[in-house]
Design goal:
Layout (H helix, E strand, L loop, with lengths): L31 E5 L3 E8 L2 H8 L13 E7 L5 E11 L12 E8 L3 H12 L5 E4 L4 E8 L2 H10 L8 E2 L14 E6 L11 E2 L2 H11 L36 H10 L4 E9 L11 E2 L23 E5 L2 E10 L2 E7 H5 L5 E3 L2 E7 L10
Parallel strand pairs: 1-10, 12-17
Antiparallel strand pairs: 1-7, 2-5, 2-6, 3-4, 4-5, 7-9, 8-9, 11-15, 11-17, 13-14, 14-15, 16-17
Amino acid sequence: MAAIRATSALRRPIPTRRLFSSENLNPNQLKSCFSMLDHMSVVRIRGEDAEKFLQGFTTNNVPSLSQVGHSQYSLWLNQRGRYMHDSIIIRAGGGFGSGEKKEEEDEFHLLCERSSVAALLNHIKKFKFRSKVLSEDISDTLDVWSVLSTDIGVLNLVVEGNTACTTPSIFDPRTPAGSTVPPLGALVCTPKGSLPQAVDELVQVDASIYDAYRCLQGIPRSGVDLFREDSLILEANADWLSGVSFSKGCYLGQELTARSHHTGVIRKRLMPVALLRGGERLPISAFERLEASDFLFPEWLDLETEIDIPSGESIRAGGKAAGKLFGTSFNVGIAQVRLKEASTATDGLVCMEYDVVPIIPSWWPDSFTL
């Protein structure tokens, strides 16, 4: 089944085809692609108190989104400081522009996991009290797309070429400070049933290819690698992904996150892992950094074979617990790794019948040490 290329004349989604089904395209030589993210929804929060409300209940500094189109990654915690939701917050109305006075009410669009929208809206309703805030799911009017590329020029064209939707197109803000290319590329919202613009030369793939790349980058997904009322956000590298402000005022659940940050003790982290059958080998060693490349996928990533391992399956090191495997896509996954136990394992790590090789993504800070 041949890969399909988008044309600017199309105005409805074309059927997605698995990239690796193409006879004339090597998926491991892919530099750019785009896909519809069916698992993503859009929640609109607006009103006189919208900015103030978000500032008090999310981990990032919302007032820094001073102009329409500004975005940030931010998380919602419970009173104990455990993860509840995460979202990409985009200013869609209000802001200051070039002046000092807002000309319209604040409006923010939150990109979040579709399966958690109802719970997020209930969370907002629970805490808004008398705040002048309106929240609603507007996903029935929009499609969410991801554009992945190793070329910042391609991403620039896509972001600048998609300006018609009420939800602004953005570089994915789950990006460390100083990164040249966002690890997860760009995000585009289009009116329901419409293709993004400026993707004429890009290959459309289904969401499993996006998911494999997300796993390879070690960036967690709600309900798959992040779990409500359980996960700790610094173990999920939320601070490295520019999702936490340590200089803003108080917000719900702040104490545990701030204490963990200032002690500097993080014993477990979510990180990508390669899953290998007996006898298979990688060109890199465990806990070696995966260097940036011109291609999205390394040659060892097998985009033809699915590996089915239950989420939460234990990773063992010499019979001792060294972590848990969460989401997987093809032969790569995201695991919660106990850094000391895993890095000192003399016989490697195993999960069921697979060897497990932890990988350090290229975007992790150079200061990270085991």
